[in-house]
Amino acid sequence: MYAQLVETGAKRLKTMEEMSPEEREFQEKVDAETKIEPKNWMPEGYRKTLVRQISQHAHSEVVGMLPEGNWVTRAPTLKRKLQLMAKIQDEAGHGLYLYSAMETLGADRDEEIEKLHQGKAKYSSIFNYPTLNWADMGAVGWLVDGAAIVNQVVLQRTSYGPYSRAMVRICKEESFHQRQGYQILLDMMREGTEEQKAMVQDAINRLWWPSLMMFGPHDDESPNSQQSMAWKIKRKSNDELRQMFIDQTVPQLEFLGCTAPDPDLKFNEETGHYDFGEIDWQEFYDVLKGNGPCNRERINTRKKAIDEGAWVREAAVAYAKKQKQRAQAA
Ligand code: BYC
Fold first, then answer.
1. What InterPro entries does the entry give (predicted)?
2. Using an 8 Å Cβ cutoff, are 242 and 212 in contact?
3. Which residues line ligand 1 (CB under 6 A)?
């Protein structure tokens, strides 16, 4: 019934009656679960919201390679090194599908990446935390990819066709990532020394709360949710997804024989869900403002990679031009 935000002092969604015929037809299509495709008419706000979310999602995949890249040379065995490299390459691939999905909305990849480098575009807060020991590779795979999957499984049903289709493949790969992360922790807990077991608990203690922050602010503090839910860009709210993640993760935590750094975490017999403590939102917003432990390091590393890779891109373009000229001459 309500589907587009209008300014009325307090923001509220436009009613169907208040919409233009094009907006109404668009909303009816969304309500009927028909996917929106690149050449279809769409409200400018819908396009902008998608460019914002998909570009941030792509930036997260690419920046998300850095905390793991830190451990490639120090992986404990050849098998672990190969698995970690495969995972990191998958994240690069996810970034590429997502940038391509974003380009179908008329956005320019270089411009969006430049916004990231200037600190104008966000990426997931979680990647601003350091990865201090090998158990962090397990905890990132299990908790961070685990949280990402909960969010992304639902995004497979997002209303924009190219985004939804990109999510299908990404989710398959994320499942492997989550599994390999959990296996690292399981092996350390089953076969490790006391010191290695302590490393696992330490990694969980540091990454638990930041993983819960990945789902974004509470629903009533989330400025984009109401409109994104009406347009079915988002299919479940930030708080619903966070609860789903907790409910599926706590039994896995118990199976590991570890604990969460949350004294309020407890199964609630009445609701059938786990109750949990309040997130430190001050920390969340500080990280978003660029003041997390690794924000500057992450952006500087990305800028350096772009600068140092310029010759590769130039060579690829020159080669493509030459090939085209040859094909035209033949
Ligand atoms: N971090 O109104 P809200 C991965 C921002 S990577 C930073 O709720 P929305 C992986 C939000 O952008 C997976 N910023 O926003 C890769 C907004 O700011 P703007 C990454 C956050 O968009 C490598 C403001 O806060 N997944 O899997 O409706 C290795 C207000 O929030 C965060 C995705 O990107 C945050 N955690 O909902 C391993 C999923 N939370 O833009 C693993 C796609 C909120 O208005 N994205 N903000 O200035 C989404 O589903 C949604 O964008 C969010 C936020 C649920 C994240």
1. Aromatic_CoA_ox/epox, Ferritin-like, Ferritin-like_SF, PaaA, PaaA_PaaC
2. yes
3. 52-53, 56-57, 60-61, 64, 91, 122, 124-125, 144-145, 148, 151, 213-217, 222-225, 228, 234, 238, 288
Best mutation site among 62, 152, 222, 231 for ligand 1 pocket (most ligand atoms within 8 Å of CB)? 222
* Domain spans, the chain: 16-291, 293-329
pTM for this entry: 0.94
Residue 10 pLDDT > 60: no
pLDDT (tens digit, 9 = 90+) per residue, 275-306?
Answer: 999 999 999 999 999 999 999 999 999 999 99
The CATH number fitting domain 16-291, selected from 1.20.1260.10, 1.10.10.10, 3.90.79.10, 1.10.760.10: 1.20.1260.10
Q: How far is 236 from 317, CA to CA, in rounded Å?
A: 42
Position 254 scores a pLDDT of 98
Residue 192 has pLDDT above 90, yes or no: yes
Kindly give the distance from the C-alpha atom of residue 41 to the centroid of ligand 1, in angstroms, as a whole number. Answer: 26
